[in-house]
Give the backbone structure.
Amino acid sequence: MSTVLRIGTRGSALALAQAEETRRRLIAAHPALAAPGAVEIKVVRTTGDRVQDRPLSEIGGKGLFTKEIEDGLLDGSLDIAVHSMKDVATKLPDGLIIGALLPREDPRDALFARDSALTGPASLAALAPGAVVGTSSLRRQAQLLALRPDLRVVPFRGNVDTRLAKLDAGAADATLLALAGLKRIGRADRVSAVLDPREMLPAVAQGAIGIECRAGDDRVRALLAPLHDRDTGDRVAAERALLTALEGDCRTPIAALAEIGPDDTLTLTARVAVPDGSEMHEDRRSGRRDQAEQLGREAGDALRRRIGPRFRAG
């Protein structure tokens, strides 16, 4: 194949691992792309990568991890962009689409805790009274404080290694990270405990890799088509429809997980909370998988009516 395919990605270890996985899948589906130089990975530094001293909710939300990469798609310097779907806004720039979703990794959150902060086998319940938990996720903060109002939450940002180094240095007693990312970079061995979604529901689309491209680029869309995973597509569609109905962003503590049963029934569990954990509402509903977006919208509308404007953090 004579035309180079240029993949845009952030430069973190996780982002590069996701871009490499995308390249491997592209070559497996289209052997001609195995030719030297046929697929290039281009690192783009985003605003979210540059600004590490403030929570995302204070500096503009999810788009800070995608804007510069999407600019490359729009100006033609990139052909596809590889994203963690939990970082992708529900409304994409005009002319861009998600061309494929790769098979979803485990969407659960993982707990990292210092032994000195545990009163028993690692779990949220075993954290010592008043333990300090580092996270900049309002979703995690709200659910943590709903379960354990005695805990103290402090801001924690940075890549996996940065956060774990802060934990080792004593900046907090515990922290939470997405298990999917840890698995993709081979760091899941350090996990203290994997959290049941019943106590810590994940972020919308957590564990899913999305590949963005230009809507009018037929060549690229054809290359991406074999990579799309239907189960991931339906699950993410339900979760993102919920987010759209709630008009959610990084200033909103929203959690959701859609799962597909053996009978092709899709079940969506969603939560909305206030950041201090003092109020949390849950909606759970099931339907046919081809109703994924409808289920998400209905769940979002129901939660919106129930909690009103109080869940807004900003």
Remarks:
- The longest strand covers residues 265-273.
- The CA atoms of residues 56 and 250 lie 7 Å apart.
